[in-house]
């Protein structure tokens, strides 16, 4: 089972969530490979059973510029079998809370085997721990289900 976590974070909130998810994957005996978007070798995308996208939201509900290339890769490659999840942090003061998560969700739902979406208000709090656990479980369950087919 190979899982990649690919993310971008400007002020560290999304990175905190990603670190938590990484630990939770490890608790389930999965050593996820974690990449800042700039470091991810895009040609390796199909080598993974599961890919988690982590993104903050910018502008008016927009996907950050550095995440746009991978969005397009998902749109143009055959990644139908890939299990995916999208997680993001945002700020409810903005009208489009976690707009980038919504945009990735809608595209990944069509292009991939989307298992789960998660939105977190700024930095993760104690109560987000269980939500992150659930996130990891849903990804792993979907991968298992796919392996039986
Ligand atoms: C210029 C600017 C625009 C933003 N626009 C949005 C937005 O439209 N929706 C939202 O939910 N959050 C918005 N945010 C909040 C960030 O997404 C939020 O602070 C996030 O946790 C930052 O993640 P990071 O610490 O990983 O960089 C905006 C922040 C800034 C500075």
From TrEMBL:
This is Flavodoxin. Low-potential electron donor to a number of redox enzymes. Belongs to the flavodoxin family. The keyword NAD does not apply. It holds the Pfam family Flavodoxin_1. Residues 3-140 form the Flavodoxin-like domain. Keywords: Electron transport, Flavoprotein, FMN, Transport. Its cofactor is FMN. GO terms for molecular function: FMN binding; oxidoreductase activity, acting on NAD(P)H. PROSITE patterns: FLAVODOXIN_LIKE. The keyword Electron transport applies.
């Amino acid at each position: 089972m190979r899982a990649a976590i690919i993310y971008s974070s400007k002020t560290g909130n999304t990175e905190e969530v990603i670190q938590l998810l990484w630990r939770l994957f490890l608790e389930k005996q999965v050593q996820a490979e974690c990449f800042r978007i700039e470091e991810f070798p895009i040609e390796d995308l199909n080598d993974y059973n599961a890919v988690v996208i982590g993104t903050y939201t910018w502008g008016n509900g927009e996907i950050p510029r550095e995440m746009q290339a991978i969005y397009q890769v998902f749109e143009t490659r055959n990644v139908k079998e890939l299990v995916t999840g999208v997680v993001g942090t945002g700020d409810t003061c903005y009208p489009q809370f976690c707009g980038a998560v919504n945009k990735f969700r809608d595209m990944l739902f069509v292009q991939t085997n989307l298992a789960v979406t998660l939105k977190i208000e700024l930095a993760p709090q104690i109560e987000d721990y269980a939500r992150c656990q659930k996130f990891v479980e849903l990804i792993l369950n979907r991968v298992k289900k796919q392996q039986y087919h």
